[in-house]
Each structure stands twice: as structure tokens, then as C-alpha cells.
Amino acid sequence: MKKIVIGSDKSGFPLKEAVKAHLVELGYEVEDCGTQDMEHGQPYYMVAPVVAEKISRKEYEKGILICGTGMGMAIVANKYPGVYAAVCENTYAAEKCRAINDANILTMGGWITADFAGCAIVDKFLNTAFTENLEPWRQEFLTKAREEVKGIEKGIYHN
């Protein structure tokens, strides 16, 4: 079974619920690490670390974080080694964050993104592979670039 980890704060809760239902419908096992109802919202800076840690430890290959704009979640998640979180507001950005940057966490804004658009963005994020549909020279460049970024990360985290 396909597995994914997801989380939101109160501002992202309605979109997260729509995305979660969509993922379950597609056959995903979804671990929800964030706000569970509108009465008991968790702040973005508490939710993002839980999801990011699971990605960093390779418990999951991909994750989704949703707050008001998606930006707070991305800022916090990107503090973790091996986490590449990208804010996406449309399917084109979702495709490119995977194909070019090999992002492993999608972040979205519940104030910005409609439910139907969020589900389409998630589909593009989950179904695009690193370097997919790119010219061979660009695939080679991006593969080398990804290794350079990992080298930078090793220098920062000393691992």
C-alpha cells in the first residue's frame, strides 16, 4: 500500500481534510500528524517538525504540509536534513518542484488553494519523478546538482 504523511495547522485544516479524503480514495494509507479538528488547532511550527522528522528519518518518502500560506510550514520543514519542502500554488509548480528539485514535502496554503486545486496539485506532486520529461543534458545537470546540494547539507549537519 502507498503511504504518506500529512499535517496542517488550523488555517490549513479544511484543505488538509479534502486532500486526505482524496488520498484515501486513491488508495493511500495516510498518517495525519497535525490538527485533527477546528477546535484544537496546532500551530504550524509544531506540526511541521513532526512531518519533517518522519521524512528525514526516511519513514516516508513524501509528505504534505498545509498552513495558511504554505510558507511557514516550508520554512520549518526545510530545517531538517534530507527534507526538501516546496510551496506550490499550482500544478506546474508541483511538477517542477519534483522534476527539477526532487522535493519530498509539498506545502500549500489553505487560504490560497481551493480544495479541487489542492487535490490536483497533490496528484501532480505524487506522480512526477525527478528529472521526468526533461532533456538528457538537463537530467544529467540536475542529478549532479542534487548531489552538490546533498554535499552542502552534509557540511551544515556534519553527517
Automatic annotation (TrEMBL):
Entry-linked InterPro entries: RpiB_LacA_LacB (IPR003500), RpiB_LacA_LacB_sf (IPR036569)
Presence of the UniProt keyword Signal in the record: no
Keyword Transcription regulation: no
UniProt keyword annotations, A-Z: Isomerase
GO annotation terms (biological process): carbohydrate metabolic process
UniProt GO molecular function: intramolecular oxidoreductase activity, interconverting aldoses and ketoses
Taxonomic superkingdom: Bacteria
Protein family: Belongs to the LacAB/RpiB family.
NCBIfam families, alphabetized: PRK05571.1, rpiB_lacA_lacB
Protein's name in the database: RpiB/LacA/LacB family sugar-phosphate isomerase
Organism: Agathobaculum faecis
